[in-house]
Design goal:
The protein is mainly alpha-helical. The protein contains 19 helices and 8 strands. Strands 1-5 form a two-stranded antiparallel sheet. The chain has a two-stranded antiparallel ribbon with strand order 2-3. Strands 4-8 form a two-stranded antiparallel sheet. The protein is globular and about 60 Å long.
Length: 476
C-alpha cells in the first residue's frame, strides 16, 4: 500500500475509533457525522467502518463458533463456549446501523441524481450489510431503519422480506451500472475498486448469487432460475483482482482489527483451534504456513475448543499468520472473494443443477485460494490434485458438497461470518460442540443474540432471540 493511502486510512480509522464506541444506541440518529459532506469524503470512512465491523467482534464470535480460533480467556473464551448475553452485539449493532449503513444512505442522499456510480456503490454496500445483519440475527429493522429521527423504535421486518429488499438493491445497482452516464467517479476515494464501475457491476451480480444460494433450500426453483440467469449473463467476478477487500496498514491504529486484537490488545486470550490445525495437517494442506505462524516451534501448538485444558504458553503457541492478518497487520479484510464465488457456484451446480461443471468451479475456487494465500508451484499442484481426486471419489452430490465446503471453510480463514453461513446452510464441516456449552441444549449456536441495548430500548423487540433458533433459510 502506498504511503498516501496508508496515511489516509490511518486518519479514517482514528476517527472511527474515537467516534464509534458510544455506550448508547439510536439506529436512526448519528450525531457524530455532519449533515453536509460530499460523497467522496463519506465513502472511504464508510468502507473502513464496514471492514472494522466485519473484522473484529463479529469475526471473533463466528471464528470461534466455526472452530478456527479458540478462546483461552475473557470474551473469546465466552464465545468459544457459547456464553452470549447480547452485550457483545451492542457495538456491532451501533456500528452497522448508526455507522456504516447511515453513511452509505448519506452518500445516496448527497450524490446528485446523475451520480449513478455513487448510487450503485451505496446500494451494493447496503445490501451486503443488511445481508450480514439478517443472516446473523434474523428479523431486523429494515424498512423503518435509517429513516427520520422521529422513528426511534423501528419495527423488525421478516427475513424473507429483507432478502427481497437486498436483492432489489443489487438489481437496482446493476441497472445503474449498465447505464450510459455514471456521473462523477470517486477514484481514489473508493478504497476497494478505485472507482472501477465494471468491478462494482461484477461484485453486485456475484452477491446476487450469494443471496439466492443462501435460500436454496426454501426457494430452490427460484434460486436455480436466478443463478442460471446470472451465470449466463457472464458478468461475475473473474479473478482475485475482483475481490471485495478493504486494505489496512502496518501502523498502530491502521492495522487489521483481528491483528490488533491478537497481537496488541488481547494476545493472552486467543489461540488457533487445534481442530483447525489438525484438519490442515491431516490433508497436508500447504496453506498452513501462510495461515498460521508456529513461532519457531517446528510444530503448530493450538488449543482445543471449549477451554477445559491448560493452553500453551503465549511464547510457544501458534498465532495468526500472514494470510489472515499480515506480518504487521497489513492484510486486507476480505469481505467477499472470487474463490468464495466459485465455491458457491460449485454448490449451486451440485444442488441446483445450474449451468457449468461443479468440478470446474471447485477447481477454480481452490486454485484461486492457493494463489491468494501465496502457495504456488509444485506444492499448489500436488494439493490441488489430491483434493480433486477426493472430489472425484465422492459417491454422491452430497458427498462432493462436503469436499467443496471443507475447502471453502479453510479458504475463508479470517472471515468467520461466511463460514458460519456455510455451516448452517450445508451442515459442513461437521463440528463437535464445545465440551462446556452455554446453549440450553448443548448444541452449537445457529444465530447470534440481539443487541442488549436494542432489547431494552425498542418496544418492537419484545424478547431476546435464542442461540439455538435457526434463521429462516436454515432448514434441514
Amino acid at each position: 500500500m502506498n504511503t498516501m493511502k496508508s496515511n489516509y486510512i490511518f486518519l479514517l480509522v482514528s476517527l472511527l475509533l474515537f467516534t464509534g464506541c458510544e455506550d448508547w444506541l439510536d439506529i436512526n440518529n448519528d450525531p457524530n457525522n455532519p449533515v453536509d459532506v460530499s460523497p467522496d469524503r463519506i465513502l472511504p470512512a464508510a468502507q473502513v467502518n464496514t471492514a472494522f465491523i466485519m473484522g473484529k467482534d463479529l469475526n471473533l464470535q463466528t471464528l470461534a463458533i466455526v472452530q478456527q480460533l479458540a478462546g483461552t480467556n475473557n470474551q473469546l473464551l465466552s464465545y468459544d463456549t457459547y456464553f452470549f448475553n447480547g452485550t457483545e452485539a451492542d457495538n456491532v449493532w451501533f456500528g452497522i446501523y448508526a455507522g456504516a449503513l447511515l453513511d452509505f444512505k448519506k452518500i445516496s442522499e448527497t450524490a446528485s441524481d446523475d451520480d449513478a456510480l455513487y448510487q450503485a456503490i451505496s446500494d451494493i454496500h447496503m445490501a451486503y450489510l443488511f445481508g450480514v445483519t439478517t443472516d446473523l440475527y434474523g428479523d431486523v429493522p429494515f424498512q423503518e431503519s435509517l429513516q427520520d429521527i422521529d422513528i426511534v423504535a423501528p419495527v423488525f421486518d421478516d427475513q424473507s422480506m429483507i432478502y427481497d429488499g437486498i436483492l432489489g438493491m443489487l438489481e437496482n445497482a446493476e441497472t445503474l451500472l449498465n447505464g450510459d452516464d455514471l456521473g462523477n467517479n470517486p477514484g481514489a476515494s473508493d478504497l476497494i475498486y478505485g472507482g472501477d464501475a465494471e468491478k462494482w457491476l461484477r461484485l453486485g451480480n456475484s452477491l446476487q448469487v450469494k443471496y439466492w444460494l443462501q435460500q436454496r433450500k426454501i426457494n430452490p426453483s427460484e434460486a436455480a432460475s436466478a443463478i442460471t440467469a446470472l451465470v449466463n449473463g457472464d458478468e461475475l467476478l473473474r479473478n482475485n483482482g475482483d475481490n471485495f477487500n478493504v486494505p489496512f496498514g502496518t501502523t498502530n491504529g491502521n492495522q487489521h482489527p483481528l491483528y490488533d486484537f491478537a497481537f496488541n490488545r488481547r494476545p493472552g486470550d486467543i489461540a488457533i483451534s487445534q481442530r483447525f490445525i489438525d484438519s490442515l495437517n491431516v490433508l497436508n494442506d500447504p496453506r498452513i504456513d501462510e495461515f498460521i505462524n508456529d513461532q519457531g516451534q517446528g510444530t503448530y501448538l493450538g488449543y482445543e475448543n471449549g477451554g477445559t485444558g491448560t493452553p500453551p504458553l503465549q511464547a510457544v503457541r501458534a498465532v495468526l499468520g500472514t494470510f489472515p492478518v499480515g506480518d504487521n497487520g497489513e492484510a486486507p479484510m476480505r469481505l467477499y472473494t472470487y474463490y468464495t464465488q466459485e465455491f458457491l457456484l460449485a454448490e449451486a451446480a451440485l444442488m441446483l443443477d445450474i449451468p457449468g461443471d461443479a468440478r470446474t468451479y471447485y477447481e477454480n475456487a481452490l486454485t484461486a485460494s492457493l494463489d491468494a494465500s501465496g502457495v504456488d508451484g509444485s506444492d499448489a499442484q500436488t494439493y490441488l490434485a489430491s483434493r480433486l481426486a477426493a472430489f472425484d471419489a465422492a459417491g454422491s452430490d452430497e458427498e462432493q458438497l462436503q469436499v467443496v465446503i471443507r475447502d471453502k471453510w479453510v479458504s475463508q480463514f479470517g472471515n468467520g461470518v461466511e463460514s458460519f453461513n456455510d455451516w448452517r446452510r450445508t451442515g459442513y464441516p461437521e463440528f463437535q460442540p464445545s465440551s462446556t456449552p452455554g446453549t440450553s441444549d448443548g448444541s452449537i449456536p445457529v444465530r447470534l443474540l440481539y443487541s442488549a441495548n436494542e432489547l431494552s430500548s425498542n418496544p418492537n423487540l419484545e424478547n431476546q432471540s435464542q442461540l439455538i433458533d435457526p434463521v429462516w433459510w436454515d432448514v434441514d
